[in-house]
Amino acid sequence: MIDGTVGDVRVRFRVGEDGAESAMQWREASMELLFTARPWRTFRWYHGQRHYSGFYWACTEQDLVIYESRLELARLRLADFDRSVRRIVAQPFLLEAEIEGRLRRHVPDYLLLHDGVPVVVDVKPAVRLSKPEVASTFAWTRAVVESRGWRFEVATEPTSAELENVRFLAGYRRDAVFDGDLLEELRSLDLTDRSLAEAFASLPGHPARRVRAAVLHLLWKQHWTVDLTEPLSGTTVLRSRR
Fold first, then answer.
1. Which of these, 54, 111, 118, 125, is most buried using a 10 Å CB contact count?
2. 94 — phi, psi (to 5°)?
3. What b/e readout covers 194-224, taking b as 16+ CB neighbours within 10 angstroms?
4. How far apart are CA 235 and CA 130, in angstroms?
5. pLDDT, tens digit, for every residue of 84-124?
6. What is the DSSP secondary-structure string of the chain?
7. Residues linked to residue 237 through DSSP beta bridges, in sequence order
8. How far is residue 57's CA from residue 60's CA, in Å, rounded to a whole number?
């Protein structure tokens, strides 16, 4: 028993190609095991559905990761952009416990490995956080997650500028489509404190569209950093990554 409000918590998860279900005590499930989990539930597309579901190819995983809403997709993109996030697992497990004769169950949206620390993430529009059932579920989940020294996060709507900038840069995220020699040339240049427009024009011996795409790829990789709170433009200034 963790405590009277959390209950004797079990975790259920799916592993292997066939998604076979396993279950054990929450405290006994290792971080390494849970990061091998497959999504707890799958989704279907159908006419008139209320949720926007799909697959996102994540650089972090070098594989497809599912999402069940536009807000989940936004948090997924931000996690994929974050260089300190090393793993992303969608719908990683089901937590359950019997509390005062009633079964409480919850499937978090994501499990991240952030700077070596597991972070369990639930995604919800800010307007719904005050609903008693949502607040109760998240309070219980936080207590369960933090009982192991892990972190719990409730993700709501990001700022529009940050989201749009990361969404735009995500279009340039795939390493395999870029010329390694061209990327290396750009990395060798001192473009710190130069504008994006200057960076785009920094290698006149190459086709302009290829240089532009390569610069944006290196921004996704955060070879340089920029102010993401303002819309990207030709005047955006490149900063060195600290």
1. 111
2. -110, 125
3. eebeebbebbeebeeeebbbbbbbbbbbebb
4. 41
5. 999 999 999 999 999 888 899 999 999 999 999 999 999 99
6. ---TTT-S-EEEEEETTTTEEEEEEGGGS-HHHHTTPBPSS-----TT-SS--EEEEETTTTEEEEESSHHHHHHHHHHHH-TTEEEEEES--EEEEEETTEEEEE--SEEEEETTEEEEEEE--GGGTTSHHHHHHHHHHHHHHHTTT-EEEEE-PPPHHHHHHHHHHHTT--GGGS-HHHHHHHHHS--TT-BHHHHHTS-TTS-HHHHHHHHHHHHHTTSEE--TTS---TTPBPEE--
7. 195
8. 9
CA 199 to chain centre: 28
pLDDT of residue 1: 37
Helix orientation angle between 180-188 and 208-220, rounded to the nearest 10 degrees: 70
CA proximity to 167, closest of 68, 74, 66: 74
Of 184, 97, 180, nearest in space to 144 by CA:
97
- Structure-token pair, residue 144: 């369960």
pLDDT digits (tens, 9 = 90+) for 9-33: 999 999 988 889 999 999 999 999 9
